[in-house]
Amino acid sequence: MCREGMLDEALEIFGILEEHHYVPDVDNYNTLILGFCKSQ
Length: 40
Hints:
Order of helices and strands: HH
Number of helices: 2
Largest sheet: none
Shape: flat
Structural class: mainly alpha
Strand content: under 5%
Helix content: 55-70%
């Protein structure tokens, strides 16, 4: 999603996963950060 510019949707799903006790790893965070940086 981040690679396709769907940052809002990716962030929403990320939040839903955290609500269900999913623990994001470094790759998850890096993908989000990279997506936001590329959108600038």
